[in-house]
């Protein structure tokens, strides 16, 4: 689709503004296809971030000012405040579209923003395009990844949260100069009251150094077939630069933390590649992973249900198959 340069697209930059995440870069790639891209920041972008933004075609960063002595990281955890910042940014930029990554807090901010601005809202879009009459159109996978739906925003303004891995991030043909412009925000009493004090802000660092499960481009998950030994699963994940996931049974057994649970009562993932080892493919688990682009399953049972939705089925003992796969991948990478 040819970019519509008369449309202004605001992209919320996640805070803290260190290196932009892969989902942020994907969001900028989507935004460029819709119109002229401006970013909204809560806090000061670093020189490196500005260079990254320029290479992705962002012409202007609108930096929120106001809220007294609030730190950017604390302010960014308040969904009412983020919504008010974005509403003000929409006002000063006269933007037509606002895009956010599909994190849980962002989805709440997006809903508040849509209410504040009268915009139409799409959450968890897997694609964002426009209709012939210029409306924003979002593609969504629903009902546990079993149906593809298309939602058209019929209001003048649109707010969309975009799932990780919706597109492959690609820089602009040529980098652009980025301007930074401040804009004043006068947060409401509600927004200020919802900002946690510094003592209440917990920034949980990924101790493993692996990507976040919901955003990862590659996920390696283990099930009951691991019998509690996740070493081969973690080793293959590290060879692939992947996140580690699991079925609920493994979490219930205490073999792995709750954050790793994929499924209807866990995290929903839609990576480019999902590898499931020792997982039967129960509906509760499939609901959280069957929207993955390529599914590889390793299972000792050739009749296991997960093979029905797999692109590649490997019949074998995961304790033998996964280390061989990890070794070949490392060999291929020259490590
Ligand atoms: C209300 C509710 C909500 C639920 N929510 C979730 C959820 O969010 N996520 C979730 O995952 N589950 C959820 N469950 C549980 C779900 O129904 C299944 O019980 C669970 O997904 C099965 O996990 P599993 O595939 O690891 O185990 P199993 O079904 O026991 O499968 C183990 C598989 O490992 C294979 N295997 C055994 N040994 C090996 C080996 N050496 N090498 C390779 N393969 C081997 C077996 O052939 C088998 O296919 C929920 C259940 C309920 C009731």
TrEMBL record:
UniProt subunit comment: Heterodimer of an alpha and a beta subunit.
Organism (species): Luteimicrobium subarcticum
Family, as annotated: Belongs to the ETF alpha-subunit/FixB family.
GO molecular function: electron transfer activity; flavin adenine dinucleotide binding
Protein name: Electron transfer flavoprotein alpha subunit apoprotein
Binding site for FAD: 224, 247-248, 261-265, 278-285, 299
Domain Electron transfer flavoprotein alpha/beta-subunit N-terminal: 9-199
Manner of cofactor binding, per the entry note: Binds 1 FAD per dimer.
